[in-house]
What we know:
Layout: E1 2-6, E2 14-17, E3 28-38, H1 40-46, H2 51-54, E4 60-61, E5 66-73, E6 85-88, H3 98-101, E7 125-129, E8 133-135, H4 142-145, H5 151-164, E9 171-175, H6 179-191, E10 195-200, H7 203-211, E11 216-219, H8 224-231, E12 237-242, H9 249-255, E13 257-265, H10 276-282, E14 285-288, H11 294-305, E15 313-317, H12 321-329, E16 336-340
Parallel strand pairs: 9-10, 9-12, 10-11, 12-13, 13-14, 15-16
Antiparallel strand pairs: 1-2, 1-4, 3-5, 3-7, 3-16, 5-6, 6-8
Helix pairs in contact: 5-6
The site of one zinc ion (ZN) has 9 residues, from helix 3.
Amino acid sequence: MKAVRVVGYHTKLQLTTIAEPAVRGPLDVVVRIGGAGVCRTDLHILEGQWKEKSGVALPYTIGHENAGWVHAVGDAVTNVAVGDKVILHPLITCGLCRACRSGDDVHCQNSEFPGIDVDGGYAEYLRTTARSVVRIDDSLEPADVAALADAGLTAYHAAAKVARTTVPGEVCVIIGAGGLGHIGIQVLKAISGVTVVVVDRNPAAIALAVDIGADHGIVADGTHVDQVLDLTGGHGAEAVLDFVGEGGATREGIAMLRRAGNYFVVGYGENIDIPTIDVISTEINFIGNLVGSYNDLNELMTLAAQGKVTLHTTKYPLEDFQQALDDLDAGRVRGRAILVP
Ligand SMILES: [Zn+2]
Ligand SMILES: [Zn+2]
């Protein structure tokens, strides 16, 4: 089969022919890839940023945002059958450790991560397991939803925490109206009663955010913290959902947060700098967010099937992987780039 592989760091990916993955264990599922999302993490992998962390042996097949059709199943697989349309939870998890038994797939102690430390989805077929496949509604196409497997799942995981920790009428500020921010807005409007206030430097991104349901869009022009305080009677928002996490976003976000509010960190890069006396005297909380669980992905796919969460995509044939990566790197992709084998 055709596969796009990492052959070295600081080197271009290579399209080669390798053997199709086969079912090895009773719970294995081989998926025919219908769409593989092209992610900024893929660029970071090629820069060598994941080299030590993943310890992956080269060459290997990249691509961690995958959806397609079930092609073959092991003897013990009962939840999907050959031909089913599925989206793949990004991790292959053991099901036996404490985290797995709590439904907390992301913290599995014995996980593999296709596209990061084992073969991924820039290929015609990928091997995963029964625990990682979510059947999707007939109305959805794998290439349209593939990027929900990672980018969408991360936004859902954090936004669903906001929904669980707020009541209708409270305010959530979303910092950053990019790809994840757009999913976050749609999720909050679908499953919570919060007033959604979106802050971004880019006026076009703000216009789109309001278009897809944000209650207020504020262009970050230096007056944005004051504008949020004005909107909230001077108190600030009960929740801040930060998809940026760098360039001073956290300092501004903390200034927009109400006493006893929750600060959800998704985007990252800078240090959070706040005197501890301010943390105790206001009882604010900082909450980290890492991808999402199998159940999160299942819930997100329900919203997708209901038409409540949609993702704009630009599709490329698998052979055009280099174009897709170059377009992503240069900021030319609208929505998410998807490779279609
Ligand atoms: Zn990704
Ligand atoms: Zn586990």
